[in-house]
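Supplementary Methods S3. Complex input for the alpha-methylisocitric acid-bound model.
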Amino acid sequence: MPTLTEQIINAHLVSGRMVPGEEIALKIDQTLTQDATGTMAYLEFEAMGVPRVRTEVSVSYVDHNLLQTDFKNADDHRFLQSFAACHGIYFSPPGNGICHQVHLEAFGIPGKTLLGSDSHTPTAGGLGMLAMGAGGLDVALAMAGQPFYLLMPEVIGVRLTGKLPPWVSAKDVILELLRRLTVKGGVGKILEYFGPGVQTLSVPDRATITNMGAELGATTSIFPSDAMTKRFLASQGRVAAHRPLRATSTRGFKEILELDLGEITPKVACPSSPDSVKDVSEVEGLPVQQVAIGSCSNSSYRDLMMVSKILAGRKIHPLVSLEINPGSRQVMENMAISGGLLPLIQAGARIHQSGCLGCIGMGQAPATNTNCLRTFPRNFPGRSGTKNDQVYLVSPETAAAAALHGKIVDPRRLGDYPVIKQPREFVVKNRQLQAPLEPGQTCEVIRGPNIQPFPKFTPIPETWEGQVLLKVGDNITTDHIMPAGSQILPLRSNIPAISEFVYHAVDPQFVNRAKNSGEGAIVGGDNYGQGSSREHAALAPRFLGVRVKLSKSFARIHKANLINFGILPLIFENPADYDRLQPGDRLVLPDLRQRLLAGAERLPLMANGQEYWVRVELSPRHRQIIAAGGLLNVAGGAG
Ligand code: MIC
Ligand code: SF4
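Predicted complex, serialized as structure tokens:
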């Protein structure tokens, strides 16, 4: 069996053929959720009536909604904790760390499949897992023992040679790939890394690269499991989880990209897209007022120790606020033990609890008209919480250099490159993971008033009529559709309330228009719905009456979420028709239900009396779900 991807898929294949573009179903070994998507996912799991998860391991992390400005987040945390205890799920409490970092440390196993209700779940690909992001409902189904359906991706080989030069690190590798491939370059693909350069990268480095494969739109990214993987698992007290895995031939790669690590230079993704990549040297001198180091892409022990060594004995620039968000409690503890925390404190850093924090706008919003350097994976407009924000994505090395100088500086100017030694054995005994109760033990799920019942959705009508409610451009993110941040994230378990914020920053009138127009459609460009896995970006528009989305192409997870909640994703047969449709246009899809269920691959669409043609790229299973008005209407969701 040639590629590692094919080996793992083959071992988990429940149905379908491994032919790119065909629908396959995979057995899922492990699941993860985080709180912002997890509360809804567990409510959906509960609706399926399955008493205990049927996976090998399922973990519920609390890492996103850590601000407790009122009862809502705290209530959801209690719900998640009690729900996990009752249903066979491990629980990682607030402050314990970002789901992806903790999963690498405590649960990831090479060769296993992992489905997570977070788009950065592919982080675990750094350990040789086939790890994918999905909407909460798909994760709920996996917990209920159902397979995960996806289109078989093309496997792209990325052949790594050479070794990273000093001051260049894993973040620069993935930024280089984003420069080459853009935010839609990975759609429908899995990136599999191989070649002699692989062994020069540690597991956390690999995880930085697979993490931001999400920004390429890739289904996932994966590294082999080798001696480096074994060393990492041993350092976590889990050497027994190791097994060697690698591609045995390159025949299965659709294409091979060559990347000489030795040629990579420090990179920066400029505002406001992860693929607006330049060399750091091109933006040197730009004043910087905030530097934030953390997130699931760069907050491992190595990353923070690097920053600590760079700052040791120095003070940060007086006009810079340096925020340190450790990836996990374990990272913090081991930093403290090996003396890495003190230099950060003495240099003037603001050290926060472990979690997502400013990465998803939960605090740490930058000041107006200032530049901000972050080691995070995303810099979509306004995501930081500040309007017109100017967020640059960089490596920890480049971030630390800016914190010292108050401006962007090529880190290669800093002198000797610090050597970071990974502990042979991390102190792991304080992992604050709570195991579930044994079956049969009495337990109670605690629900606060923030949790509102799930809305009911109607099946698709025979003929659909509606109006174009909004027209947007290319690469619209789920942050545009359903923003996050401290005001909106606490409403994730209350669909009527969160729906008030759909397309909030793009068009503040959208919600009223949708509510007053009956059913409607949204018209989008290429790669519609890229970014986060949040199913609320489908669920909330659906609640407002959006039944159809028309675009030039869709991002994978968002398209799956649309289907799950009964929204019909249609593709312009002639992309130029995008220019002809306008907000307010009256649309009719004649005999929609019958055509959809009969398997029509193209549908006539009447708009203002003119006929257009749209493509339907849906499997028979998808068509059933959409016709029923959503997956939860199909035999309790387990269909
Ligand atoms: C993100 O980075 O955008 C998030 C917040 O982690 C999301 C999940 C969410 O919206 O809750 C993701 O990546 O899927
Ligand atoms: Fe959290 Fe940011 Fe990672 Fe999303 S990208 S999981 S918000 S740290």
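DSSP finds 20 helices and 26 strands in the chain. The longest helix spans residues 71-87.
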